[in-house]
Amino acid sequence: MKLTDLQLSQVDAQIKRLIQTDSYYGRIYKEAGITGVSSQEEFEQLPFSSKADLRNAYPLGIQAVPDEEVVRIHSSSGTTGKPVIIPYTAKDVDDWAIMFARCYETAGITNKDHIQITAGYGLWTAGIGFQAGCEKLGAMAIPMGPGNTDKQIQMMMDLKSTVLTATSSYALLLAEEINKRGIRDQLYLKKGIFGSERWSEKMREYIKRELGVSLYDIYGLTEIYGPGIGISCDENSGMHYWDDYVYIEIVDPKTLQPVPDGEEGEIVITTLVKEGAPLLRFRTHDISRIIPGECACGNKYPRLDIIKGRSDDMFKVHGVNMFPSQVEEILGMVDGVSSEYNINIAHDEAHNRDIIMVTVEAEGRVDFEQTGQTIKNLFKSKMSVTPKINVVPVGTLPRTEKKAKRVIDHREV
User: Is residue 142 within 8 Å of 170, Cβ to Cβ?
Assistant: First the structure.
């Protein structure tokens, strides 16, 4: 999908504004002799930006406005290296709320809904993003934040929450608890908006069934406003994204060359009107594709497919590259196996080889030994790797209120 004339002029304006500042990217563009763009070809010659840049510019090197124009700071939820600090102007905050309200409307949510927000608050963008969009829409925000499941369920019943927002991991925890207590008929939930991590089809179906909700995937990242730059619709045919605020291209993660619409690759995002910390050609490492054509729902905004995973989620065992999404696909083929699993990888020094242990949950009605053998055979035939399989009862693996960590690599880097 190529830049429109308007988008091209917006990118050109962003570059000209950046080179007038002493910001990190302003200096990079000056040193590279970049003064603006007037064509798709010139745009595709621009250097990529990355999270590593943002850490190099810590704390506020990417800020492109005076301090007195910054009204808020957010930071990514990453746990490695220096945190990423993103400054927002008042317009950035309002633009984000407009996009988020648009997400709610796309999901059929109105000002009559009661929206229970379980995402984290503070420096993280999620909680306050869900709330600002809710207030912009005019709906009732119930800003619970994460954790305290007893109170979450109590408020859900007493305040008649109709919409749940959460990570898919926490939605699973809530669904299992509501199932255990047998109180689904006391709930008023109709819709669930979940984001921040990819989730398997099995998890999706379980949450949908146990909470009795329609599900919507929301997309975004702290560096680019936060969640709310795109959402799925009732057609469940990808996520509409707001191309009046962001331009999205898909590139081959190895060659970094743009790929045609419909082909899978890494999402690269350019902010078109962001003031506090504009980012051009930001590499997200999220894997997806642009879906060609218009959606049957009638929404004219372009679509991204559901996020398949991250290019940096890949792990290698016995020379084979693997992604969590491939593991989830295998587990989805096996009767009685839940969506929950984890993978431990270690190096056996005595035999100088890597060991991979996959722990999965299964329902008590199935034979654990036979189920384990089925999974092992599928790994061998589909991924050319034979792991050790540990089958445990449903509910054994830990649940989380945040993003689930699926792969634990104990090998020395």
Answer: no
**Which tens digit of pLDDT belongs to each residue from 234-293?**
999 999 999 999 999 999 988 999 999 999 999 999 999 999 999 999 999 999 999 999
- Please tell me the distance from the alpha carbon of residue 31 to that of residue 113, in angstroms, as a whole number: 51
d(CA 201, CA 199): 7
How far apart are the C-alpha atoms of 395 and 387, rounded to whole Å? 22
For residues 34 and 16, the answer to whether their CB atoms sit within 8 Å is no
Q: Report angle CA 44, 49, 52 to the nearest 5 degrees.
A: 155
Contact criterion met (CB below 8 Å) for 210 and 175 = yes
Cβ pair 397, 340 in contact under 8 A? yes
Supply φ then ψ for residue 18, to 5 degrees.
Answer: -65, -40
DSSP string, 28-72: HHHHTT-----SHHHHTTSPPB-HHHHHHTTTTTT--S-GGGEEE
3-state SS assignment for residue 176 = helix
Record the tokens describing residue 411, joined without a space.
């090998």
**Contact predicate 320/383, CB 8 Å:** yes
Query: Which tens digits make up the pLDDT trace of 33-55?
Result: 999 999 999 999 999 999 999 99
Q: Indicate the Cα dihedral angle 141, 147, 152, 154, nearest 10°.
A: -140
Output the six-digit token pair for 49. 């930006």
Strand partners of residue 317: 320
| Domains of the chain as residue ranges with CATH | 89-312 (3.40.50.12780), 314-409 (3.30.300.30)
**First-to-last C-alpha distance (Å) of the chain:** 39
Residues written for the chain: 413
Residue type, 126: A
pTM score of the predicted model: 0.83
Phi, psi (degrees; rounded to nearest 5) at 90: -60, -40
**Token digits for 390?**
């540990």
Q: Residue 378 belongs to what H/E stretch?
A: helix 368-383
